[in-house]
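Need a sequence for this fold. Nothing fancy.
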């Protein structure tokens, strides 16, 4: 999914997408068999979603 698709989601969908991506990333990081490339892609995706949340003033730092 590209950044432009993130912009097409409504606020609630974007927040759910962020949480789901974050949980998937955490799971992949714990999985020793997970390919590093997938972890890197998920990390980048999470940053892209965070940027979109910040642009919408929905970002709350944890």
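Here you go.
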């Amino acid at each position: 999914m590209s950044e432009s698709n993130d912009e097409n989601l409504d606020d609630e969908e974007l927040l759910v997408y962020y949480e789901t991506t974050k949980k998937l990333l955490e799971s992949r990081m714990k999985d020793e068999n997970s390919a590093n490339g997938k972890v890197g892609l998920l990390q980048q995706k999470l940053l892209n979603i965070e940027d979109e949340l910040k642009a919408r003033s929905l970002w709350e730092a944890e």
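For context: Helices lie at 3-8, 11-30, 36-55.
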